Q: What sequence folds into this?
């Protein structure tokens, strides 16, 4: 009987050694899982940062006119000049305006995507059955006339995929076509601002201030945000 006891003691030592290994294995498994999760999170974060959109760099200059001369007549007008920088896809831009009228009411205007306005039968080239963009790139050598007999899909109109604003280009409202006969209101400018600029009660006149914000939609970054004085 005494000869069997050493074997029993040896078995106890082996059992104790096995009990010591189990916690170590558990800790190693937990560390492995933690490392794997950290790697997955890091890869996902890297993927997101790699696809983050960046706004193109560009310097813009915005002007409003109470009555801009077009030879035989004058009309309210707006221009946006791309002074320098990267080409700007107009389909990727939104324009928001803020104006306080004579009654103290804040009026918010907005332009996003390709929008058009019809003319007036008193205007020789821009009649009621003719359309043009609310804004369009004023380069007829490159695009041809912005006046069309349909209300969407013309290359020079703001919001069209082909309307890429490059350094030196100017976006204009159709003020140049709002004549020669009266009324000389500007349907494009009215659309952008959200009110009739020829209405005396609006307060749109030289010296009035309009806040203009232009946003690059894919990145959400503001590329123009200024108070512009009407001249």
A:
């Amino acid at each position: 009987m005494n000869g069997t006891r050493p074997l029993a003691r040896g078995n106890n030592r082996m059992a104790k050694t096995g009990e010591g290994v189990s916690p170590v294995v558990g800790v190693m498994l937990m560390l492995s899982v933690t490392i794997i999760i950290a790697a997955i999170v890091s890869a996902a974060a890297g993927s997101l940062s790699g696809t983050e959109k960046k706004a193109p760099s560009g310097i813009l200059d915005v002007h409003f006119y109470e009555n801009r001369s077009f030879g035989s007549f004058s009309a309210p007008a707006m221009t946006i000049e791309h002074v320098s920088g990267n080409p700007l896809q107009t389909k990727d831009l939104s324009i928001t305006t803020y104006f306080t009228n004579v009654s103290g009411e804040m009026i918010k205007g907005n332009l996003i995507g390709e929008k058009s306005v019809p003319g007036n039968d008193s205007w020789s080239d821009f009649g009621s059955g003719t359309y043009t963009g609310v804004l369009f790139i004023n380069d007829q050598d490159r695009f041809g006339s912005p006046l069309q007999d349909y209300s969407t899909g013309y290359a020079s109109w703001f919001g069209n995929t082909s309307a890429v604003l490059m350094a030196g280009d100017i976006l204009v409202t159709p003020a140049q076509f709002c004549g020669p006969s009266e009324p000389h209101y500007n349907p494009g400018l009215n659309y952008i601002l959200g009110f009739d600029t020829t209405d005396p009660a609006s307060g749109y006149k030289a010296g009035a201030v309009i806040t203009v914000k232009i946003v690059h939609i894919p990145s959400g970054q503001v590329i123009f945000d200024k108070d512009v004085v009407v001249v």
